[in-house]
């Protein structure tokens, strides 16, 4: 349908000569022609152009039409792969995973396995992602750099699923393996440090502070344990920042500030200890305000430093919102 079809008609009679102008019949441009009217080559071209232009819906439709309507085309496998990537860009991970599964049934390639695990992660099928990544990292044909990536992502999935300790062990193994590479990527190491921080942050969030249900000893123990998790997480996040990758540095900085802000919120909202006199309640509140003010000050400083890291992703916007919120809070409580 892309090729032009020229039709010329000329009628001749003894009495009259009738010369008709040549009639040129061409297909509509690819952007206008129905997908059902396009051949495999045109569909692939249309899908590729759409993908490059950021029109992932149109790209997915074109690539889907190609591999479904022309299964014997040499371009069908690539179209199936490209359709999966198009749906991934659209955050339609179930559609992406279905096409990746079909692709992997014939082409068991590591890159496709990584994308399938990513789709499972986004769909919260963490056990499936862990199993896929574990099988991937055990492959004898996997390059060392990809094995590091598989170890790291498996660890991330385990941490996300609540298996913090084995997840952290895998992340540390990934860092150790990355150290053997000639040129380990700073972003990969920063990601590893970030997720080690995430594991410690999980422990930080799990410690509850409730002065109304704790005696002084238990309350002090809870605060000290929570503080240890905070400082340990902060140390990992700071390592991530020092790796020099702007996006991970911004995410790590935001997490540090967020923890101090969360600590502040928990202390402020916690009920007062039971059995205090009016004078003791006033003194307790006064001491608490002094402590939480320091937490707010530190969170603000960390948020301000985070915005200087150069990251441009979602964590930057979150950091800006948090900084505005705490500055307002500081004014209200001054």
Molecular structure report:
- The chain has 13 helices and four strands.
- The chain has 334 residues and is mainly α.
- The N and C termini lie far apart (73 Å).
- Helix 6 runs antiparallel to helix 7 and helix 11 (246-269) runs antiparallel to helix 12.
Beta strands, count: 4
What structural class should be given to the helix and strand makeup? mainly alpha
Cα-atom radius of gyration: 30 Å
How are the strands ordered across the major sheet?
1-4
Overall pLDDT: 83
Q: Between the first and last Cα atoms, what is the distance in angstroms?
A: 73 Å
- Percentage beta strand: under 5%
Helix fraction, binned, reads 55-70%
In short:
The protein has 13 helices and four strands. By secondary structure, the protein is mainly alpha-helical. The strands form two sheets. It has a two-stranded antiparallel sheet with strand order 1-4. It has a two-stranded antiparallel sheet with strand order 2-3.
